[in-house]
Amino acid sequence: MLAIAPAATADGTTPNPSWLPHPADATWEYQWTDSLYNATPTKEKVTVDKSSKADAFQLDWTTDGENNDPAAPASAGTVSFQEQNSGFFNTNWNSNQPPQNFPILCASTAQCGNSLASAYYNVIWGSRAPTLVEPLLQGASWSTTGGAQNDVASSNDYVGTEMVTVPAFPQPVLAAKIRSQVTQAGAIGDPYGSGIRLTWWVYGVGPVKVEFDHSGGAVTNVVLVSTNQTPATPPPDANYFPLKVGLKGKYRWTNPTHLRTPEIESYSIDQVANASAQLSVKSVSGPIKVNGAYGFTTRTDGVTSIWGTTKSASLATMPPLGPKALPPTQRRHFVTPFDLMTYGFNPVLPAYPAAGNTWKGAASGRDYQIYGVTGTSTVLGVQKVMVPAGTFQALAVRTVMTQPGFPFGSGTRTSWFVAGRGLVKLVFKHGDGSVSTVELLK
């Protein structure tokens, strides 16, 4: 299978680069102010707790030893994260109480576990699961909650990259910009707990800047003052298989040997949640009458087909597919372009595809039980492709497959994907000598 995750270091932590690196020796120093409640610049030192592991880690912060002005609030705390293939999740936090002049971010003053009186609290506020989604691709958006009672909600959008300057990096560095609309309702100080937050993340470093424009009029600013972490070039953010509600199109599928009349089918993405989507397909014209639905998900291990179901009737006769281990009634059939695209093994394509990426279909596991196919997929790179829908620069992925005993299930498939659009063309040269061609009509 495709290997994408960096290996852990000897102490169990994940090495750079990462959107939130946490090697054992990592340090950061942040400075934050608030226009209404903390005009005194307050510095905090952040370090990696010794208990941290490769995918579950804790960051500790303190104002001790930072030579802050006596008027600056003193604080110490921890914030914990779990790294999953869908992003960084905040799992816990702890600190002293916020200064008495700060708004109360709970429905009552008793045992209030909410605070915005630190740099990292402004990063995770209302955005815990995940704090940052991965893979971070064009069009990424997610909704999540936060606060001690999950009473803070946020909708988050990746708006692209831009150059940013902070004290830690006097020369501009490239950062990913996240815009969050945060809402708190029912707290005494909920105007302060609501607003628009902008967060800039630098690959290999972590968050370097936060601007929180609170609904009550206050503005909190956080900047990275120093760090021993080094900015790295972020992975490409082109989204070659966008899972976006409302995305739709129409395909033409031909196979001169087995499908002499072109099959025309339309598709649309109907539901999306947590970077997983339901896609529906239905017949427009041709010999196959079909209604189908497919599930796809995008994670750091790539775009994966997780399920599919179809109901169809066909006047065309297709050769059988395997595997031999399954009875004929449980074997897959080609009735939509997405059957041709997902056939074989996952992922459909890597999260951050680049020319030369390869991955294999192993003779074990879930995909092998369903398809009984082995083979190799390779990213060929970006190529010019012409289809009825237009001329595109498309990412080409070639897959060579073998399904023992079934020539129609063996062969070479080349798929072309366009950023922001998805699949635009597919050519499957089957082992029986026939060729299936799928093209985007509109």
**CATH architecture label name of the largest domain:** Beta Barrel
- CATH topology (level 3) name of the largest domain: YmcC-like fold
Count of separate DSSP helical elements? 4
Strand order of the largest sheet: 6-5-4-3-2-1-12-11-10-9-8-7
- Give the H and E element order: EEEEEHEEEEHEEEEEEEEHEHEEEEE
Beta strand %:
over 45%
The level of helicity is: under 10%
Overall geometric form: elongated
Number of DSSP E strands:
23
The main pleated sheet reads as:
12 strands, antiparallel
Any low-confidence stretches, pLDDT <50, length ≥5? 1-15
Helix vs. strand class? mainly beta
Query: Rounded to an integer, what's the Rg over CA atoms?
Result: 26 Å
Euclidean distance between termini CA atoms: 33 Å
Kindly provide the name of the CATH class of the largest domain: Mainly Beta
How many domain modules?
A: 2
What does this structure look like?
This protein folds into two domains: 27-227, YmcC-like fold (Beta Barrel), CATH 2.40.360; 248-440, no CATH class. Strand 1 (27-34) and strand 2 (38-48) form a beta hairpin. The model is unreliable at 1-15 (pLDDT under 50). By secondary structure, the chain is mainly beta. The chain is built from four helices and 23 strands.
List key phrases describing it.
disordered N terminus; 442 residues; 2 domains; elongated; twelve-stranded antiparallel β-sheet; YmcC-like fold; mainly beta
Summarize the structure.
The chain is mostly beta strands. Helix content is 5%, strand content 50%.
Helices and strands, with pairings:
Layout: E1 27-34, E2 38-48, E3 56-62, E4 76-84, E5 87-95, H1 119-124, E6 132-133, E7 141-146, E8 152-166, E9 169-184, H2 190-193, E10 195-202, E11 206-214, E12 219-227, E13 248-255, E14 259-273, E15 276-285, E16 288-299, E17 302-314, H3 337-342, E18 358-361, H4 365-371, E19 374-387, E20 390-402, E21 411-418, E22 422-430, E23 435-440
Antiparallel strand pairs: 1-2, 1-12, 2-3, 3-4, 4-5, 5-6, 7-8, 8-9, 9-10, 10-11, 11-12, 13-14, 13-23, 14-15, 15-16, 16-17, 18-19, 19-20, 20-21, 21-22, 22-23
